[in-house]
Design brief:
- By secondary structure, the chain is α+β, with helices and mostly antiparallel strands.
- The protein contains 21 helices and 24 strands.
- It is rod-shaped and about 185 Å long.
- Bound molecules: adenosine-5'-diphosphate (ADP).
- The site of adenosine-5'-diphosphate has 20 residues, from helix 20 and helix 21.
Length: 702
């Protein structure tokens, strides 16, 4: 609402003052607002009220004068030029003195309805005739009109001008007070709303504990509604601070949220330089402010944004993004309390973000602790944790305690020099692990409590535990692996021996046959030897190749079918198949399981020289499928039941005579079972026969 003079000055008091003035000076006076509202009128002359204003023609002239006055009052002329004197259309003198407050022309003080010289009766008589007044009564009223000297009027004008000035001053004071009061009330209202908003958000559980997306939306929506800003968004820098991405934006009019827009930092240097300096960006007019002009065409103009208030959002102590208030509509002046409020909102967002990060870190820690515990307590490898500075053991897992033959409590008192058989090398490796963040040591020698030195393979790395930088060593005892490697070498020489024996026989007999004329019977005998030796060689080579090229690959095997496959090869023996219905398909490498069965079946035939039944069966037992081959042969002595699964182990038995073999059949069965996460074993009663069992888990491999 436009401000009025009547709002600033007490009109009855003004009226009393003006009336006293009129009595003292005899000058009629009035105060009018620019729209023509008469606030005070004193000493009004009868000639005006009873004649000029009442009669159509006089009234028309009066209005003409008023129209002129209004024009003057509306324009800036009166306000700038000060006093204005004129003769009204009905012939009386008027002086207008503007009352200007804070450069606003709020009212005009009029002195008037007087004459400078005795009235020109001829003019007034003619006016009485023209307007149809009662001539005598009109002249009588005319005689009441005071006649003043110019000087007296000027004195009065000077007085009234000062008086108008005084009124203006008082008015200005009151105006200021009114405006201050208005803005104070306005500000208090704003502050109350802001405080309520901060209080509400501050106590919101979702802010630090719950759904981060929800908390963000709450913050943005509250900011938009409290400040009545159309668009409020959170923008976050990427890792190398080359881009800023809108994490979430709330639009007040549609009440909807969006996200995803990106701005390249390099495209808007002035804007981002301010943000990077951790400064609040208060822009009342985005089109003229040098910090935002560069955003005008691509961002501000298309969205109708006119004013912006951007506050840095701190993440872990530095500027991680901005809380951006974008005002749409006429240019807006941001108040200090609004800037403070947006800062508080940005702080609340930082709090929510840090809460989320903390929760994530806690989850990760919990997860890593769980993994650590799992790893640490797992039965597989030995784990030793030690301080890389002092080389003292901090903790070990039960597997380590078992391997080194200490109790865990004893182990925790050890220095790593106590378990390493090469302390100097050991220190060097610790240094390397620290500088490279991790190390794989393929071979080192450690010492057990009883002094036994054994080979180990170590994977070491650094990790932080309860704010300490520690070194973890995962130690694997490779005694067995080395033994196997040795065995491999032995096997190679063994194999070459095994190959050489049949080859020698084959070459010898062939040579003999070529060089000599032998009778047909002898020829047959020699050729049979050559054939037998060739078959042995073939078997040896096949087994060897299978061992070498073993690769996992799973198919579905119907065990029943495999059993049937083997039956035609038996002559002396009776084959029984015990395959109860209901055993479903087993996940396995069909070819390899078939190979294992063939090995077991051929052994059953070989090692039951008197014939008898051979039973092949399958059944489920718990979570496993069992495949077994039973014979009624020579059996396996108790002390050899494990040994026969090792390479090249063959047992002597008087009943066997010249039964050939390689000692590789059962090791292959063992490999195949292990490959299927299963195992093989033998149950036997000497002279009554043996049962060889393979068990494979029914669940498919993960
Ligand atoms: P090969 O049969 O070629 O000698 P294997 O590895 O298959 O080699 O078997 C190793 C040894 O285990 C055999 O030499 C034999 O002494 C013993 N063996 C295997 N199967 C049986 C069985 N069914 N009954 C008795 N002994 C067996």
């Amino acid at each position: 609402m436009p401000l009025r003079f009547s709002d600033l000055v007490d009109i009855p008091t003004l009226h009393r003052v003006m009336e006293s003035l009129w009595r003292a000076s005899g000058l009629s006076a009035g105060v009018l607002e620019p729209d023509g509202t008469v606030l005070v009128a004193t000493g009004t002359q009868r000639i005006c009220t009873e004649f000029h204003c009442r009669h159509p023609e006089g009234g028309r002239r009066c209005r003409q004068s008023e129209g002129l006055t209004r024009k003057l009052m509306e324009g800036s002329w009166l306000a700038e030029e000060g006093t204005f004197e004129y003769v009204c259309r009905n012939g009386l003198v008027e002086v207008a003195i503007p009352i200007v407050i804070e450069k606003r022309h709020l009212a005009t003080l009029f002195l008037g309805q007087f004459l400078y010289r005795p009235p020109d009766e001829k003019f007034f008589r003619a006016q009485a005739v023209r307007c149809g007044y009662d001539e005598e009564k009109y002249l009588e009223a005319l005689r009441e009109v005071p006649v003043f000297s110019h000087k007296k009027v000027m004195d009065c004008v000077a007085f009234n001008a000062s008086f108008a000035g005084l009124l203006a001053h008082l008015g200005a004071q009151k105006l200021k007070w009114t405006e201050a009061e208005g803005s104070l009330i306005e500000r208090e209202k704003r502050l109350r709303l802001q405080n309520e908003a901060i209080l509400r958000l501050g106590t919101l559980r979702s802010l630090t504990e719950g759904d981060f997306e929800l908390a963000t939306r709450e913050i943005l929506e509250t900011t938009a509604r409290t400040l009545d800003v159309e668009r409020v968004g959170i923008w976050l820098f990427n890792r190398n601070r080359s881009k800023i991405r809108c994490f979430s934006l709330f639009e007040l009019s549609g009440g909807k949220s969006s996200s995803g827009m990106e701005l390249k930092v390099g495209d808007y240097p002035a804007y981002f330089a301010t943000i990077e300096k951790d400064r609040t960006l208060t822009v009342h007019d985005v089109y003229t402010d040098p910090r935002t002009v560069e955003l005008r065409d691509c961002y501000l103009h298309p969205r109708g944004i006119t004013s912006m208030l951007d506050v840095p959002v701190r993440v872990n102590g530095k500027v991680g993004g901005i809380l951006c208030c974008e005002h749409v509509g006429p240019v807006r002046q941001w108040s200090l309390d609004e800037q403070n409020f947006v800062s508080s909102m940005a702080d609340l967002f930082s709090l929510a973000l840090e809460g989320k990060n903390r929760r994530r870190a806690e989850d990760a820690l919990r997860e890593s602790e769980a993994k650590y515990r799992l790893l640490f307590t797992s039965e597989s490898d030995a784990i030793i944790i030690f301080d890389p500075e002092t080389l003292r053991v901090v903790d070990v897992n039960p597997a380590a305690a078992r391997l080194y033959q200490y109790t865990r409590k004893e182990f925790r008192r050890l220095h790593l020099g106590d378990i390493s058989a090469e302390p100097d090398k050991f220190r060097e490796r610790v240094r390397e692990t620290v500088s490279r963040d991790g190390l794989r040591i393929p071979l080192a020698y450690h010492r057990k409590r009883d002094g036994d030195v054994f080979p180990v393979e170590i994977a070491s790395g650094l990790f932080f535990w309860k704010k300490r930088r520690l070194l973890v060593g995962i130690v694997r005892d490779i005694t067995e692996r080395q033994a196997i490697a040795r065995m491999k070498d032995e096997m190679l020489s063994g194999v070459s021996h095994e190959i050489r024996t049949p080859l020698t026989a084959m070459i010898g007999f062939t040579q003999f046959l070529l060089d000599n004329d032998t009778d047909p019977e002898k020829q047959r005998e020699y050729l049979a030897v050559i054939l037998r030796e060739s078959e042995r060689l073939q078997e040896l080579i096949e087994n060897l190749l299978s061992l070498q090229r073993f690769r996992a690959g799973f198919g579905v095997l119907d065990l029943h079918e495999v059993a049937h496959l083997f039956s035609p090869t038996l002559e002396k023996h009776r084959l029984v198949i015990e395959c109860p219905p209901g055993l479903g398909p087993v996940f396995c490498d069909e070819k390899k399981i078939r190979q294992a069965l063939i090995n077991l079946l051929s052994n059953a035939v070989k090692y039951s020289p008197d014939g008898g039944s051979i039973t092949i069966g399958t059944r489920t037992e718990g979570d496993s499928a069992l495949i077994w081959v039973q014979d009624e042969g020579i059996g396996v002595p108790e002390d050899s039941r494990e040994q026969i699964f090792d390479r090249f182990v063959r047992l002597w038995h008087p009943a066997l005579g010249k039964v050939g073999g390689t000692g590789l059949g059962l090791p292959l069965v063992k490999e195949i079972a292990a490959l299927h996460r299963g195992r093989v074993w033998v149950e036997s009663a000497p002279s009554k026969g043996s049962i060889f069992c393979i068990s494979i888990p029914l669940s498919p491999p993960g």
